[in-house]
Amino acid sequence: MTFVLLMFDNFYFCYQNSESNDLSQVLRSASTEDRTVILTILDETLASPGSVLDLFLESFRIGQKTQQFLNHIVVVAVDNQAYQYCISIHPHCFHLTSVTSKLAKRKGSTSPDHLTLKIMRLDLFLEVVKLGYNFAFTEADVMWLRNPFEHFDSVKTVTLACGSNPQGGTTMIDKGLFFMKADEISFEFLKILRFERVLFPNYLDNSICEMVTHKLKGYSVKHLDITYFGGFCEPIKNMSKVYTMQSTCCDNVKSKVHDLRLVLDDWINFTARMSTNASMGTSPFTWRAPKKCVG
Coiled-coil ranges per the record (predicted)? Predict the structure, then answer.
């Protein structure tokens, strides 16, 4: 067994040959016919009974035209507890073993820090593209209520949803969802990000939206209409338009679970009324406001 050890600004990422082979096997088993998978990455804080992961998977089961994607989701766990829970409830799980996770836990932390996790994600994305798979990346706290692939561009290299910073300013924030084709442009883009984080350690503080907009030309990128992709910071009130909803403006995991449960319950009530042709009244059916998030 051989190892490839890469060092970037005191962060180490290790891909063993066996791990790369394991990833290839998981991607192959989860892939659609056109070599597309859905990726989400999480740690133990989001993966336990009654957790964000449970709600994430439930959203696919109750969403409109989303059940078909359940068998194409690859849940990437960055620690053993998340991996063990994943394999107990989902067929396609991958344990991301890395030196970075061990470094992050030296001081007793339960999960990799924010920057370390970003590095791990980008390395994973590069490996997935290198293996020839297109992927839709979604944060685990994004509820899939309708099929967002209807809005993805099969020609553009990247399709992504970007929002404005709720605290003001000109920076763009990620909406927890983007699609990337496995082509030469995406491969070179991800390699450049790997190189630039060595030269500019703070570069990864930027959002994916900012990095894509800065590095890729317009003809390679499609920006999604955020009318259809909401979050707690900027909710979509009209349920007839929503495709995904994310628990933005919410740092506490218990609060996320509580308010995402409200989202799914409201969605279930909405779809039940629609399916029975019940009158929607004079005003559209809307979400309950988050109770724990968005103080």
Answer: none
